[in-house]
Design brief:
Elements: H1 12-22, H2 35-67, E1 83-93, E2 101-102, E3 108-110, E4 116-124, E5 136-143, E6 151-156, E7 158-162, E8 165-173, E9 181-182, E10 185-190, E11 197-198, E12 208-216
Antiparallel strand pairs: 1-12, 2-11, 3-10, 4-8, 4-9, 4-12, 5-6, 5-10, 7-8
């Protein structure tokens, strides 16, 4: 049947579609949604997100390049010219009077942000009352300023007796004329961990004593 309405007049279906398109509450899955506007909004959001990501990456790169790659502790300044000051003091000592056994792990200690001149290291080798011929002792830097060496070169140890047993105390001194600067976290090192004495009170860590003087920066 022919449509009795004027052919130029809008149809009822067209009018209904326009009403749905104009409704701001229309959901994305509802018929008649203005998909062009939605696509533009999504594209604008993606561009903004990409811009924020680029800016964030650039900021991280700028900080990384500016700060370099210092070791734990964050300081990268040099220590040339530092001088040893004051009297010798105990920087670390985990020796106790409990019964010991052979075999030990490396004990650790920190300078707590202070710089020191290493003066003396001592370890203990009871070795079931037999002692042990001296080898070497040293320190390993676990964290701290990158300007300092990772390993304090092994120091040839001398030995003294304890309770009448020879070669129990291994020790080495560092000449004050050639300061060895400490600043950070360190562990004691011993060339013979199999006879290095430890006990439950030390947590299985080898007995170690470290003496040091304060290290003072030039001009202070």
């Amino acid at each position: 049947m022919n449509n009795p309405q004027n052919a130029d007049a809008p149809s009822i279906d067209g009018i209904a579609g326009d009403i749905v398109d104009a409704d701001p509450s229309n959901g994305a899955r509802r018929p008649g949604k203005n998909t062009t506007a939605a696509k533009l909004a999504k594209a604008r959001f993606r561009w903004i997100a990409a811009l924020v990501l680029v800016l964030a990456v650039g900021a991280v790169l700028a900080v990384t390049l500016h700060s370099g790659t210092p070791a734990a502790g964050g300081k990268t300044h040099g220590f040339s010219g530092y001088v040893c000051h004051g009297t010798q003091a105990t920087l670390f000592d985990n020796i106790n009077a409990e019964a010991v056994s052979n075999g030990a792990s490396r004990p650790t200690f920190s300078t707590h942000g202070m710089a020191y001149c290493l003066m003396y290291i001592q370890t203990y080798h009871w070795n079931k009352g037999a002692g042990s011929p001296p080898g070497s002792v040293g320190l390993i830097r676990l964290g701290g300023p990158a300007a300092l060496p990772e390993y304090i070169a092994s120091l040839s140890a001398k030995a003294s007796s304890s309770q009448g047993v020879p070669n129990v105390n291994w020790f080495a001194s560092v000449p004050i004329t050639k300061p060895v600067i400490l600043d950070g976290t360190y562990s004691c090192a011993d060339s013979d961990p199999s006879t290095w004495s430890s006990d439950k009170a030390s947590g299985g860590a080898g007995f170690c004593i470290v003496y040091a003087n304060l290290a003072v920066a030039p001009g202070r």
